[in-house]
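Thread: "does anyone have the structure for this chain?"

Original post by V.I.:
We have the sequence but no experimental structure in hand. Need at least a predicted one for the grant figures.
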Amino acid sequence: MTVWIWIAFIAFVLLMLALDLGLLHRTDHVIRTREALKWTLLWVGLALAFNVLVYFMYRDHWLGIGRHLGHDLGGHQAAIQFLTGYLIEKSLSLDNIFVIALIFNYFRVPGQYQHRVLFWGILGALIMRGAMIAAGTALITRFSWAIYVFGGFLLFTALRMLMGGDEAPDLEQNRLVRWTRKLYPVSQQLDGHNFFTRLPTGQRAMTPLFLVLLLVESSDVIFAVDSIPAIFAVTVDPFLVFTSNIFAILGLRSLYFVLARLIDRFHFFKLSLVVVLAYVGVKMIVSHHLEIPSWVSLIVIIGVLSLGVLASLIRSRVHQRRDGDGGA
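Reply from O.Q.:
Generated one for you, tokens below.
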């Protein structure tokens, strides 16, 4: 039964999270770029190793996996679909990193407490995304027209991203912040890494750190609404959708500490995300009439993202040279 494969994967994820917070980050400290880069490479390496495992699992149909949707899914096709979904999620998470950086800066969260917030934020994201993936899979499996709805939504998201500005949101006017302050007392000061504290009056209150955690969770839900439908353009296999999504999210925390200070340099990456979303949206809409091979989608997505990164790096270097000439 494929349920044992699900249980094994979830147990692996929980083990890695327990190892992360319980052993390697037991004490609060500022995550340096070198440390974050090592963790980022570790998570990417684990994702690629798991992709190899996916190949053999679906090639040999371990415990019947690859046949539960009514058709055979071979190892080569499954591996390409996992990798494509992983790349989509990883690239779309960059916008989430930018929002998280804004939240931390606005509430002036000390560097040594940011890892703790992101850890619990990621844990909550895993649960919420699992539920959203289950709902999306059930919807697409039962109603064939849902694929058109998801495709149209992705095209709308791409247009909204293209037309949207880069101005920072006013977090003090955020509805979640205002509702939380009305429903529960919020202290003005941090209490170490604690999410709750007691006021001088003895009343229990949440700290600004918990308010930050709520905002991080809510931002992930918003981005998940955009990114999860994009994976369904690549595969409708629930195991591949879930695992590629989870691996991308697990590496988000370390990726934040690597890219938080450099995110502004990726000027054209947002445009490449628009193109990717538009492509997968069109792919979903025409899927019942024209089947685009998985390897084609993988090449298109890698090519578009690479062009976005390359153009951003060239632009950044040109600006640095201009600034240097001006200073001279």
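V.I.: this helps a lot. The chain is about 75% helix and 0% strand.
O.Q.: and The chain has a mean pLDDT of 82.
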